[in-house]
Amino acid sequence: MNNSIRTILGVKDPYLKLDEKNFDNPIEDQPNQIIVHLIQTYPMHCPRCGQLMCKNGYKTVNCLGPELHFKPTIWSIKKQKYICKASPSCPEVITKLAAVRDINYHDHISLAIKQRAMMLLTKNESQSDLAKELNVSDWTIRRVITNLDQFFKPNYHWLPRHIAFDDFKSGRFAPSGMSMILMNIENKQTLDIILSRKNSYLRDYFLRYDRSARLAVQTVTVDLYTPYRHLIHELFPHAIIIADHFHIVAQAYRALNKIRIQVMNRAGAATHEWRALKHFWKLLLTPANELKYNNY
User: Fold this and answer.
1) φ, ψ (nearest 5 deg) of residue 269
2) I need a labelling partner for 252 at 20 to 30 A (CA). Which of 104, 154, 211, 234 fits?
3) What is the pTM assigned to this prediction?
4) What is the pLDDT of residue 295?
């Protein structure tokens, strides 16, 4: 197999070759998928005694490789089996199976697909859409995301001067169904995703940071949830609490809408005031300089 075919197939293992001995056409272009017949064999030494192991047949394993011609590609790999028989230098029988550099051990999805999934995570697409695009399951995409945790560990020795955290619905991945996002207000950068929004969990999380880092925080922007205030004063004693303007506007809208409904109920159904407040409620939210007083 020359370098051009390796590049097209996405094969990086130097020992992995097309099985041209057993198949006249090792690359089968079927209507719904492409099957690539490969063979993997190389000298292997016994991990116990260090002697060269004997070849002991093959085992065929099907793995998902990078797609070709917009079709799912199946790598049908004949992996060499090895055996080291019992001897004075190796008291027990040792068996091994040839490994493939492009695929993790005990895995059936190539590393190229997982790397592609990491790149596609930057798009505004759901996990199910990414899974369909890559011909894998939703759980495969979730495992890829979980494995990214090791590359995004927060720095517990530093916090920016101005931070903000807000809750969002995270479903069954959080004990309470709600998680928290921690952000740097100055550059809009996400610092970490906190698993739960419960006060006990938040206290334990922020206590991981050095006290000097917490004392350096000057402002904390949060919503109007009262229990957060006591926790912020405890963890960030030098910080000023700033209410998130979005939640202020949302609360003002709910209060105004509540008053509108009360006035409608006092006026009574089918009255002029009731119909006006019901059908023209958007005018109450329109800025005064945008209202047209000559057209009503």
Assistant:
1) -65, 150
2) 234
3) 0.58
4) 65
Burial degree of 258 (CB within 10 A; 0-12, 13-18, 19+): exposed
| Three-state secondary structure call for residue 83 | strand
Residues in contact with 263: Cβ distance below 8 Å, sequence separation at least 6, in sequence order: 273, 277
Task: Describe the chain by its helix, strand, coil percentages, rounded to 5.
Answer: 35, 25, 40
Q: What is the DSSP string of 135-192?
A: T--HHHHHHHHHHGGGG----TT---SEEEEEEEE-GGGSTTSEEEEEEETTTTEEEE
Q: Which residue has the tokens 């609490």?
A: 241
> Rounded to 5 degrees, what are φ and ψ at 197?
-100, 5
Listed as ranges, residues in the chain with pLDDT below 70 are 1, 173, 295-296
Q: How many CB atoms lie within 10 A of CB 186?
A: 10
Report pLDDT digits (tens) over 78-88. Answer: 999 999 999 88
Structure tokens that stand for 96 in this block: 């091994």
